[in-house]
Give the backbone structure.
Amino acid sequence: MNHDSPFAALGNIRDTGEVEAQVAGIVRSFAPEHDLTRIAAAFRLLDRAFDGRLPGYQNLKTLYHNRTHTNEVVLCAARMLHGLHLAGQGVDGDHLDAALIGALMHDVGYLMSDEEASGTGAQFTASHVMRGVEFARRHLHDLPPSVLESTTKVIMLTDHRKHPDWVTFDNLQQQRAAYATATADLIGQMANREYLERVLFLYYEFEEARMGGFADIHDLLEKTTAFYNMTRGRLDKDLHGMSVILARHFGQQTGADRNFYQESIDRNLAYLINVVSTEREHRLEKLRRGQVVEKVLEISGSH
């Protein structure tokens, strides 16, 4: 593994099969007896839903909140749970399932039903969390009621526009599971090596949701450092600074006591300074990863 690149240490999140295998491997490393059946079933449900093979639903159309984003969150959540276990703050099997199934389902509210004719699903930005809770209650009825209840609270805590106090927890483990996943949701996306490119997709989602507040994609790029600083405040204060626990996971798995997520975020932010200091007409030339810019230019041409 090339540790010179913290991004490489985070693994391949485009391949869902690989992500599921990594999640299973991490869980087995600290809970070898854990039955992975419920988590595997949630992966399969999401496959069908996002691919448009779940009756009553269209395939997932949002550009930013896509399968890759879900993959990065569930993988980061598994690493968070491992780190918590190593720190003596682990959760039992039911709450482990709730954290990971909640991570898988946290953005499923962007899915549109067959009746919802227009848009990409981004129009539900403000309501997607509670739509996701409804989806979980409808489609995860095989889970024991207590596990389903914990799973819905995990999903609810990923509404980052609300203070965590809006969710009432039944016990410390349930809270820990939800905080781990909510932390993974923020950390996972900002550490993605294509994060700066993908922010451009976010602009179009915000536009569709009519919650822009951004003049154009450049305005969003220029405000991304401020957004990060706000997010850092949420991570450190509201979510109790839990992300530092990731260094324990990597220490045990790689022998390097490093938080590769934070290192990746720091790299993204350093490069962002370089990008926004470039004049606008040449800025997108600096964002070459994942063929995102090509897609953005295609969209802006059709708008």
Notes: Residues 244 and 259 are 7 Å apart (CA to CA). The two ends are 42 Å apart (CA to CA). The chain is about 60% helix and 0% strand. The mean pLDDT is 94.
